Amino acid sequence: MAGTWRQCSSCRAAIGFEQIYWECSVSTCARVARTGLFFCSVSCWEAHLPTMRHREAWAVEKRSPTASAWQRQLAEDSGLATPAPATPLSSARPAAPKPEPVKTEARRQVVSAAAAADEDSGEDDILIVVSKLKKYIRSKSGMNTSDTVMPVLSEHLRRVCDRAIQKATEEGRKTVLDRDFRSIL
Question: How far is the C-alpha of 138 from the C-alpha of 133, rounded, in Å?
Fold first, then answer.
């Protein structure tokens, strides 16, 4: 493991020094102190998506540090930093440009269009899981449920949500909490 910088968070393969690896664009995954997820390939990065439930994420291509840079970083982190020896300018490497995330402009436009469509159609959407509601009613009573129930129930749910939003706003919050619903039911 002497030539290994880190292990892939998904498949546990070794990621060596001065090697390309991928990080998640979501800040909670990229925090070294908290989760510090590193991936050897985009497919390994994709493997973590179902468990993390990100709304929007992409893989960011990066390059692992050199062995000497990694040793300096570890020394700095532990408080034992020693000054690095001066390197002649002829042997110094130019700084690599910051890599762009693996996300295209076309993808951004699709996401924006989908978000705009969701905002426009919010008033007509069914806000409940129809199959689960029908299953609940059938298991409790043995009755069937008409499809005409869903729009009526969704409208009722919108009114309840609007009251909860109003309550959270009155209390100066930007988050609707469970207590906002309990107080109006």
Answer: 9
